[in-house]
Amino acid sequence: MTTIEKAITPDIDDSHYQSKTLVCDGNEAAAWGVALARPDVMAIYPITPQSSLVEYLSQFVAEGIIDAELMNVEGEHSVMSALQGAALAGARTYTATCGPGLAFMFEPYIRTPGLRLPMVASLVTRDTLTPQCVWGGHQDAMLVKEAGWIQMYCETVQEVLDTTTMAFRIGEHPDVMLPVNVNSDGNYLSYGATGIQLPAAPLVDAFMGEKNVNWHAALDPERPMAIDPLTGGAGGPGPSMFANYRKSQCDGMQNALRVIEETHKDWGDRIGRYYSPLVEEYRLDDADYALVTIGSMTGAAKDAVDLARDQGEAVGIIKIKTFRPFPVEAINRALSKVKAIGVVDRSVNFGWNCGPVYQETLAAAQRLQRFLPSASFIGGLAGSDITVEHFSQVIEDTAQLLKGHHYDEPIWINRND
Amino acid sequence: MHELRIHGRGGQGAVLASKILAKALVEEGKFVTAIPAFGFERRGAPVAAFIRFDDQEIRRVNNIYAPNSVLSIDSSVIRAINVFEGLQPGGTWVHSTKETKEQLTLPEDLSTLGLCDAVSIAMEIFRRPITNTIMLGAFAKTTGAVSLESLKKGLETANFRDAGLQQNLLAMERGYHETQVFHIQPHLVEAI
Amino acid sequence: CPHGALEYNTSGSVYTRIGDKEDLFVPGLSACQGCNSELLIRHTLRNVGSNVVVATPPGCIPGMGTVGYNGKTGTKVPVFHPLLTNTASMLAGIKKQYNRVGRDVTMLALAGDGGVGDVGFQSLSGAAERNEQQLFMCVDNEGYMNTGMQSSGSTPAGSWTSTTPVGKEMQGKRTDAKNMARIMMMHNCEYVATASLSFMDDYYDKLDKALAASKRGFAYLHVYAPCPTGWRFPAAETIEVCRKQVESNFVTLWEFTPDQGLQFTRSVDKPAPLADYLKQIGKYRHLNQDQIDHLQRRVDNQVKSLKAFEQTSAVS
Amino acid sequence: MTTTTKTPAPNLIPHKVVYPEKVPDNLCPVASECNAMLPGDWRAERPVVDRDKCVKCATCWIYCPVQCIVEKPAWFDIDLDICKGCGICAHECPHRAITMIEEVGR
Description:
The structure holds four protein chains of four kinds. Chain B is α/β, with parallel strands linked by helices. Chain B has a single domain, classed as Pyruvate-ferredoxin oxidoreductase, PFOR, domain III (Pyruvate-ferredoxin Oxidoreductase, domain 3). Chain B has helices at 14-27, 77-80, 118-125, 132-143, 148-156, 162-177; strands at residues 2-9, 31-36, 46-54, 69-72, 92-96, 112-116, 179-183. The radius of gyration of chain B is 15 Å and the shape is globular. The mean pLDDT of chain B is 92. By secondary structure, chain C is of the alpha/beta class. Chain C has one domain (5-315): 3-Layer(aba) Sandwich (Rossmann fold). Chain C contains twelve helices and eight strands. An eight-stranded mixed sheet of chain C has the order 2-1-3-4-6-5-7-8, with helices on both faces. In chain C, a hairpin with a 3-residue loop joins strand 7 (254-257) and strand 8. In chain C, helix 4 (87-100) packs parallel to helix 6. The model of chain C is unreliable at 1-8 (pLDDT under 50). Chain D has a domain at 38-106: Alpha-Beta Plaits, CATH 3.30.70. Mean pLDDT of chain D is 84; it is low at 1-15. The chains are: A alpha/beta, B alpha/beta, C alpha/beta, D mainly beta. Chains A and C meet through helix 1, strand 3, helix 4 and strand 9 of A and strand 2, helix 4 and helix 6 of C. Strand 9 (226-227) of chain A pairs parallel with strand 2 of chain C, so a sheet runs across the interface.
């Protein structure tokens, strides 16, 4: 058994330790982000548009760039199950999935947060069936927003890399101990290539610090314990125990807001790239109204806002990066600056006939105790594009709110394309 | 900002070509985004890739609907789809073909045309009609938007086996030198 | 012959061998009276020892409190309550990490037939295909006995269960059980064997081999576990029912390795009539002659088929 | 930001996890304390061993699902705090040394 010897002298390409410019797409960027975090165990199963991500991971393992156990298992369900096992044995773990794969993974997926297992899973977002489709959209990620995973949406390929690495530290923070989804838009980010900076590995090693996976729950003969005994019921200690576990999980989620901010700050200080960790405000301070965006659509929205500003429109952008936990305070700080909002979703909320980001934003705004005129826009489903021209129309429609216009229904962006 | 659309057929390496071009442009200090049009990328089916480049940061992550130039790395793809769709007046077309300028139907407001018999070059070098790197050379020659040197560097970091790299470097060079450029009318729109 | 001299000697030798080893479950597990599964897991873990991670997917085994309840455990070794669907892949993940850090820890699954052959099958098949190093034990009580005796893929034709009841239009389960041990043999695992606790020497022998095999790759043990509660027979008769299963060839005892092929560990010649076995069990009480003949035919065919495998492997 | 220093991956070195003495009891459902429940009160009938007939063949021990058979100098006895009264021992004893009798009173 050579595992130990191999581990002490890792056979890793020196170039991996240097900062360099790469031209790559979001899936390769995610794989580099994983490489920098030095996972122990990765389990994978391919699914469009995530497939090239796990191909990159496999290639990195083949080339020795990543020294991790790679498990090519027979489906997403086993992906998440194997990772839970590995994490309970102390491993730093990673996978990526989306759409139907995420749906198939769901049963073990919803267990990871309750076990308080830090773990990172990229969601290369994909619209859900049916209609049958293989293209991007946020519906898959939105369907699991109540599963207890932290969710961060990336805007750029560079942000995919940086956020993927940061996600490990966020999840492993002792006050958090939760799994993290790093969401990148299928097609546009997954396959969109651009020039990015790969940070130097030693800087990232210093940033990552000690691995912190399973001090609370271990399947280790040196520390025998039962993990996940039946808990609950209506009598005895059950009800209070169950409630306390649940509350602690919610507390971890709330702690994550602080930890996400601290982690982004530290990343910026060490690596040199700063991001708005929760909510980004763009040209908002003197804005009358704002668009609320999420994910890669934001770039086109910024271009459209600049054009509108040139026309004298006082419009800005509130971009949500962290969607779970929902950054209520940060959102409300931004919302308090404007008189109306147009929220653009890349998915739908079936129950409320609007976008889920719209619904969440309004729920937060309710705490402002003032009426906020608003409109829900739905676009970019199943790989469709939300262009600068689309956003110019969104801006125009949102501006109508200031004139007293009211929208009873969501506005469908690509419906007449 | 310059917007380029590449047309080809599945299996010909149109998407790889867009990545090589992106690497070359980044090498020259440009900001670039390259997005493949997505559909069913089966061997033989018409495929497209979009590239934007600029001296300033590019924020939009969108497909391209009104390109400044069009590069068709396959001669027959013009029969399958309208490669000129949305092409800006005064735009550029770089095309892989044995035909002459006169034999082709050109859009009225086309400004620059580059023609390269890429298949013949490919058959000599690869013994197979692989034209993507040849046509990148043709694009560089026609537009001057990227240098041959940078393209070669972009090629070197792409994932080719050793022999493939040398062949492709030669192919790119020949594509560059064996492209005929026609300036049909003065530029109506200045492309960056 | 349940009371022969052979039996006498055998039980003594097992006790001599294993009697001093610690029972690694707490005394108070809430299995039914006469539970064959409780007997099985106590013997098993005693022999496996404490350097182990145990996974018990939903079913009677965690249901009897092995993973505990409201903060108290029923097992003295690391134990996890995985999903019904993912036991094999979850253990595979644990093993990968222990291999990575250079620790030799045994992975043991104690799963019911539903977690093995029904919803658990995909992860099991995948783990077997990848030859993951683990000992996967199927405790086959022919249905979902923990949740009220519903039918599973392992329930034999004709059986009464709560989802294959007996009435005017249906007389118990309409389709045959699948033979999971055979299916696992076709995965070419490091070791596959069937066992019955009425033949304890045979079981311990196979458990030892399976444990050794699990250090190299995937080992699968299929143990038949008659359930007095769900099958409707007196708790005191559990072992007798086990014995009759084997004596009638309803259950055959064999083992398989890729090199040796299939070998019977107890002769399948001159079996007792199946009807004698069926008579003893409440869930078969309603069977008509056609159903009994069908089951007898199936038993005979299974034996024929297994013998064919035995001969094939002997040739190769 | 370029550096050529090669540093070994911190978590590739075989690690021994240092577990904390105490874990918050509300973090995740785990249990390391054994359940002290004894099922002796489940019985309707109790086994009684005839010491003269017992030859210590261990058949009862082998087949007792709750493993409540205890070895005495000259016979095997039953731990009645644990015995659920299933009767397997009496049914299987080759020497008919165990009989089941009704539990009466406390």
